[in-house]
Amino acid sequence: MTFSEQPAIANTPSDTDTVPGVATPLTQTVTAAADRSSQAPYLRIENVRKTFGKFVALKDIYLDVYPGEFVCLLGPSGCGKTTLLRIISGLEQQTQGRVLQGGKDVSHLPPSMRDFGIVFQSYALFPNLSATQNVAYGLQNQKVPKAQIETRVSELLDMVGLGGMGHKYPAQLSGGQQQRVALARALALSPGLLLLDEPLSALDAQVRIRLRAEITDLQRRLGITTVMVTHDQAEALAMADRIVVMDKGYIAQVGTPHSVYQHPTSPFVANFIGVMNFLDGVVEADDTVRCGNILLTAPHNTVPPGQAVVIALRPEDMRVIDTPSATLVPNQVKAEVLGREFLGAGYRLDLTLEGNARQPIALEISANRARAMGVESLTALTIQLPPEMIRVFPKENP
Amino acid sequence: MTATSPRPLAPSGTPSGLPSRTKAIDTEAWIMRILLTLGALWLLVGVVLPLIPMIGRSFHDTSGQWVGLGNYVQYLTTPSLVQSFLNSFGVAITTTLLSVGLGFVYAYGLTRTAMPGKLLFRTLGLLPLYIPPLANAIGLIFLFGNQGLVTKGLFGLLPGVDINLYGFNGIVMGEFLYCFPQAVIIMITALNLTDARLYEAATVLGASPVKTFFTVTLPSVKYGLISAIFVCFILAFTDFGVPKVVGGNFNVLATDIYKQVIGQQNFAMGATISVFLLIPSVLAFVIDRLVQRRQTALVSAKSVPLQPKPNPLLDWAMVIFCGLVTLFAVTVFATIILASVVKVWPYDFSLSLKNYNFGTVGGGGYGAYWNSIRMALYTAIFGTAIVFTGAYLVEKGRGLQWLRSVSYFLSTIPLALPGLVLGLAYVFFFNNPIWRIPFTGMAIYNPFHGLYGTMAILVLANIIHFYTVCFLTATTALKQIDPEFEAVSAAMAVPFYKTFWRVTMPLSLPAILEIGIYFFVNAMVTISAIIFLYPANLPLAAVAIINMDDAGDTASAAAMSTLIVLTSLGVRLAYSTLTRGLRQRSAAWLNR
Hints:
The complex is a heterodimer of chains A (398) and B (592).
Chain A: H1 33-36, E1 43-52, E2 55-65, E3 70-74, H2 81-89, E4 96-101, E5 104-105, E6 116-119, H3 131-141, H4 146-159, H5 175-187, E7 193-197, H6 205-222, E8 225-230, H7 233-239, E9 242-247, E10 250-255, H8 257-262, H9 267-272, E11 277-285, E12 288-291, E13 294-297, E14 308-313, E15 319-321, E16 332-342, E17 346-353, E18 356-366, H10 367-373, E19 380-384, E20 391-394
Parallel strand pairs in A: 3-8, 3-9, 6-7, 7-8
Antiparallel strand pairs in A: 1-2, 1-4, 4-5, 9-10, 11-12, 11-14, 12-13, 14-20, 15-19, 16-17, 16-19, 17-18
Helix pairs in contact in A: 3-4, 3-5, 4-5
Chain B: H1 18-57, H2 70-76, H3 79-112, H4 118-125, H5 133-144, H6 153-156, H7 168-192, H8 196-204, H9 209-238, H10 241-246, H11 253-263, H12 267-293, H13 312-341, E1 342-344, E2 348-351, H14 365-396, H15 401-412, H16 419-431, E3 434-437, E4 442-445, H17 455-465, H18 467-479, H19 484-491, H20 496-507, H21 509-525, H22 541-550, H23 554-585, H24 587-590
Antiparallel strand pairs in B: 1-2, 3-4
Helix pairs in contact in B: 1-14, 1-15, 1-16, 3-7, 3-9, 3-13, 5-7, 5-13, 5-23, 7-9, 9-12, 11-12, 12-16, 13-23, 14-15, 14-17, 14-18, 14-21, 18-21, 21-23, 22-23
């Protein structure tokens, strides 16, 4: 029962999927997404649809979650992510479709018969019970011997870093500590699936960043399959093995944080995750797009010539060219500085491109670089829109 | 990416442990369904079914012959009876204007000014809540009646003033004392819910205090004001105790029903008048519900509470105003006590406890007093358990949504049922050993007939009579509890009834005790719901007051009133002490 010591599923350490900024856990338990997809999925959402009256909250959702995987449901409010989580838990009944967990159809089981632990945004800690009593709540009902409960609870509290604080009531704990108690309580019955419903949203920015590292660390150590709902893209990028981006009740894209950020498949995903510049254009040839009077090389383009498109480019992906030379560097554009904003670690410049004044774009450079350029008095510059960084999307009909 | 191609699912970890769990959960779902059904049945028997024979009776004559609308025609063509209807209206409207008008100013003083002595005025202003309305009426007799202190000019020290107590004046004064604290409570709540930033905005925009009052204050308490108006109207329109004691020859609907039923044994006409009493109450109730539904939250979590600023002129004007109102209420209260401990009012003011020796007067004496305490205790215990469980099932239950909606609706109906109507309906429903099912010619034995003439039916009537206020209190308390508690418990496979016992109940303890007190106090002072129901071998204190007053033993009636008031106040005091202890013990989880 001591799963703090439990060895995780054997696997190879992950490469590109390791989340930046998160300390690599001591035990090597991270399973690469590529490895996992060769296993059988632990959780399967099959053709799930949910309607509230005439409102369609979820449209025919398919999703597989593999054993030990940390999946984030990410999207703006009202996109259906919480509804999907509640359907997985059985707190909400789907209108159509199936939910399979661990090889078993749980579609119509009440929550109490499914095998999961859950942490809510409000934590839902019982305020009249101490931290220990909260964590022991489910164990007591299982008729576990008292001594065993005590050992287990103190183990769990140690695991979340609250050893010795079990006698305190929720109101006597800080937000971050309450969150850990809720986590320990959710894990007390050793569930096969951990569900997190915006678990960090109620916390201060600093505590949130610390806790998201701790939660991923714990999740990897335990190797517990986890589904988290969040509207915070930074949180999803930092924590998830895979991100499920949702919009208006459907899944817009599924992928590793890296692929979702670098290779968004739609303007919605591009815009929702990170900051993105958009320029309207028309495809001239297979790898050439015209924006206003600018001709841009775009090798990733798949849209046939003649079609209206939107090209997308991240502010930090553009380069400033110090010594312009028309031949060597493709996609060079002269730009006028409209405004500048100091961001602390860097600068953001608002620019209009020569030949396409209609749509201003943003460019981010490091503070270092900005100082060297004399950014405060800069009025014009030459930039490059690197061809390999340009994404081209067919223009959606308005 | 990762297009998910169908693949076999990983096998479950512990499939063998599941069947026993399945069974347990089925039981849980069934317990929930059975409890919800029982709750709905309870309300059906307590509220809906009894009204049917009563309304049916109003279409029959005294010998049981169908007369259609005959009774109604007879009623509407009997000038004296129509006059009662108009009298009831007049009394109710006057009382409502007085209570809500003065209650609003009183509550405004307590919440929106920096007047001194707020706690004192708050306590004294709500004092009449613990006094049976008819006890207030007894107090008024000793002040303004034929032998009253004011009428006689304080033993001839001053010129006497006769205000013609018996009739309209007396009833309105008595009803005012009854309705005023209710209006004050509603208005304090409404006035407390405000956002200081609205007032700051008004000041910054250059609005005068008068304009601010009409554009910010009044709109924000609109719903409270409407609620207070309807509550006071229903109370004054349907009250029986006050007109019984100081009504004289001034008839109102409530006393008419009593006279028809007790005096003339004309149950059919009693039922007819009951319908006339019922209709305006139900209308007021429905309109209030519809209006309140349009209310949206004015106060958000970010609201800043308003701190009234000192304004000497306004503050002292408020002290004088509140002082005068309080003086009236306290004088009446003091008079009741004083009248109970003097030998012969107003001739011999030497102190004596002889009025507390009920042996020489009718009404049941101390036996009645103990019966009332027993009845109030049973009402408090069973009523609280039933109301809280009912509210829990409606608010936090899962499944059977339609049944929960029906239960909610039925739980709010008793507010619209005048006590006399409820009591009379219970007589028709429970006293009848055989039910005839209309239009079928079939009949069945009444399974509830055994309750008639017992303590149980008195307790039942009291619980239903005061059900709605308690139900709404419980619902409000339950709404404040995190809705995810049940979800979290379910995730840990803990059945709902365990979480109800270990978490929901402890968290709601203040509300539960509050409900218990409300039941107790009201069961002690009420007469309207039980006057038709109490059996001869179970005399009750509040009824005894009426009987003593009828027999001319007004001083004994004052003594019995004093006993009731002191008991209610004592219980309330014990409650405060008890909750202070509870609060200290649970301080760890209530406050940091």
